[in-house]
Amino acid sequence: MALLSIRNLHKQYGSTTAIPSLDLDLQKGEVIVLLGPSGCGKSTLLRCINGLEEHQGGSIVMDGVGEFGKDVSWQQARQKVGMVFQSYELFAHMNVIDNILLGPLKAQNRSRAEVEAQADKLLARVGLLDRKTAYPRELSGGQKQRIAIVRTLCMNPEVILLDEITAALDPEMVREVLDVVLELAKEGMSMLIVTHEMGFARKVADRIVFLDAGKIIEENTPEGFFSDPKSERAKQFLAGMDY
Fold first, then answer.
1. pTM score > 0.90 for this model?
2. What pairing do the DSSP bridges indicate for beta strands 81-84 and 215-220?
3. What InterPro entries does the entry give (predicted)?
4. How far apart are CA 207 and CA 221, in angstroms?
5. How far apart are CA 24 and CA 185, in angstroms?
């Protein structure tokens, strides 16, 4: 069985259908990159998986855990499926280490000593241990995003969702964040990634899933998708990236 199995997912905003009916499996250790035009349902899909958006039909099931929102609460589900956002979502009044420790201490009732030891290792790994007591206002965008990734990793999730995590960054800062994600991929972290960074998508993905109007139009290997896409819609999308 897939690590994460999505079946007949349906998402409605009033009279507008964002996702009509979507099936998708994520295998353990797999990296899926979701591509498609703006407004095609990529971010909505991630937010439904994490329970930040309520879906109106279908199921999201994790192997060995059960159906999210039914067998397990969304609070429990979010401990299994972490999410990193475009806008960092760091608390401005808390320093780096307190931002990182908040979830594990409050939601998982772990000891501060244990979580802080884990956080220190992760901060050292992303080159930010010396910024442990800094406040978000004292950090660059790239540093904030690396802190957000560490915060998610400290919850020990089985899957990480990454939603346009470089969209708010200056071009020079993009690489330092994407390098962290590439390392996670090499280590076997299961990830669903929404990005407009085509070079990064090609490098990090095991599978490209191309969406339009809330539907999966094409699934392909990175090489196959970028070199010889199967669908006309994907060909149009990629042609629009050439300028």
1. yes
2. unpaired
3. AAA+_ATPase, ABC_ATPase_HisP-typ, ABC_transporter-like_ATP-bd, ABC_transporter-like_CS, MetN_ABC_transporter-like, P-loop_NTPase
4. 5
5. 19
